[in-house]
Amino acid sequence: MKIKPYIPNDNSLAYSVGVTLDRFIKKKQDDFPFASGELSQLLRDIALAAKIVNRETNRAGLANIGGAFGQTNVQGEEQQKLDVIANIRFTRALTKGGEVCAIVSEEDDEVIDLQNNSGKYVVAIDPLDGSSNIDVNISIGTIFSIYRRVTPVGSPIQLDDIMQPGRQQVAAGYVLYGSSTMLVYTTGCGVNGFTYEQSLGEFFLSHPDMKAPSSGNIYSINEGISNSFSEGLAKYIAHCKSKNYSARYIGSLVADFHRNLLKGGIYIYPETKKNPSGKLRLLYEANALAYIAEQAGAEANDGVQRILDIQPTSLHQRTPLYIGSKVMVNEALEFISKKSIIHENQ
């Protein structure tokens, strides 16, 4: 009997569908010998929940799950029905996965103690970023951070497990629900993006080793609040206009960040008189995107210091955010450092 070795045929009628997320995670598992597979499983749990949320967002208009839920979250923001659904889906997936001891969610006032003292990880998550855009069919997303607990496994969770600076993240990522659904994540060894193939129910590697351009010509900021910009920031925006940069602002943080990560640009949500500490949340928005940005060669700052160096002091702490291509972020910081007076008008 003859044994024929398999030789890949580039002219085959069946094209390659690529590397699945699950296979990619398994291949990269050796990067984390201390994890013994738990981190890999945790990432799979997040991917599973993302598939479910993707399904729910795609059918929102038909299933009467769009619109407001009728309650506000801890931020004082009106919850959308899909905010609540996404929060339930991710919490349920992380609970059943068994790798997580606690969750910090934008939709919950307090830390969710999963009563799983053997869990090694803490997850901070914004289950559905930009949810107010659901009813007008604009891209939305999920943002997540993963930390390794600092207290001994087997003991009850403590505040120290939650209040960790962003530089101690072991993984972070986001899911973009748009014209296609993408999951982008990093474990500290570069950034990789995966696109969801609905007919197969799998995420496939589509954007390996993502790198942000060092500069760009896109600036993303809510100019509706320009009358409360600091003098330095106002001058920077004027500078962008003088250079004929393109203004692009969707209002979904994930979507704005994703575009600038691929094309080069800067996203800014500054401090204002109304929000002197900024508006974006440190633990489950800024830290995750800052970690991804730095792994892709970009930069993230609060206007004074590196985002990943900020020591959190409260669960829903807010921060200004200047994030994107290095040259543009550094240029913006030069402008705002010269003048930090905030205009009186709102």
From TrEMBL:
Alphabetized SUPFAM superfamilies for the sequence: Carbohydrate phosphatase
Pathway, per record: Carbohydrate biosynthesis
Highest taxon above the source species: Bacteria
Residues the entry annotates as binding Mg(2+) 1: 106, 126, 128
A Pfam cross-reference name: FBPase
EC code: 3.1.3.11
Primary subcellular site in the record, as a coarse category: cytoplasm
Protein location: Cytoplasm
InterPro entries: FBPase_C_dom, FBPase_class-1, FBPase_N, FBPtase
Catalyzed chemical reaction(s): beta-D-fructose 1,6-bisphosphate + H2O = beta-D-fructose 6-phosphate + phosphate
Keywords, sorted A to Z: Carbohydrate metabolism, Cytoplasm, Hydrolase, Magnesium, Metal-binding
Enzyme class per UniProt: hydrolase
GO MF entries: fructose 1,6-bisphosphate 1-phosphatase activity
Signal peptide: none
Binding, substrate: 129-132, 222, 249, 279
Record text on cofactor binding: Binds 2 magnesium ions per subunit.
Cofactor annotation: Mg(2+)
Residues annotated as domain Fructose-1-6-bisphosphatase class I N-terminal: 20-208
PANTHER family, per the entry: FRUCTOSE-1,6-BISPHOSPHATASE-RELATED, SEDOHEPTULOSE-1,7-BISPHOSPHATASE, CHLOROPLASTIC
NCBIfam families recorded: PRK09293.1-1
Subunit structure: Homotetramer.
Assigned protein family: Belongs to the FBPase class 1 family.
Name the UniProt record assigns to this protein: Fructose-1,6-bisphosphatase class 1
Native source species: Belliella filtrata
Gene that this polypeptide is encoded by: fbp
